[in-house]
Amino acid sequence: MSPKFSWKKLKRIAEILKNGGIGVLPTDTIYGLVGSAQNQKTIRRIYGLRKRDFRKPLIILISSLKDLKLFSVKLSTKTKRLFNKLWPGKVSVILPCPSKKFSYLHRGTKTLAFRLPREKFLREFLKMSGPLVAPSANLQGLPSASTIKEAKKYFGAKVDFYVNVGKLNSAPSTLISVRNGKITVLKEGVAKIRI
What are the tens digits of pLDDT across the range 79-95? Predict the structure, then answer.
């Protein structure tokens, strides 16, 4: 996301998201199809639009560690110290989330993946919008959109907004799992993790 967009416009977009809307937004890695992680209808709409396998959970972007409490995720002191080294950054972390209340997000896996973006501008936006699911802007199995033109080929007028910052060419985030303070790298991405 680029600071060239006025906060006034971004506040309007945050309101759209809080009211259940979805759209294409640049994240800290690639363009994402974003929507409120706290709205079940929004989540269903994103799965349907992306033709995504309903068994696969989505990554959630958060503005701070405090947002984890919204999803009943508790961190040990050891894990918090670990996160201070990993975040903010291009690392998505899978954490235990046994609560049935969030089964619409964890899809029976009883885990959720979170990322605290490095870019301060994006974290400030997330404070306004609340936590967002942010799968890549594409249909499942097809290439991720690196431009808004490509995203529009996938979604057209089926989304509520597009935010264009030009071409984005980042690799996806690195995906890790953390249990009992121990890291397992599940998928190598743009961030290199030294265990």
Answer: 888 888 889 999 999 99
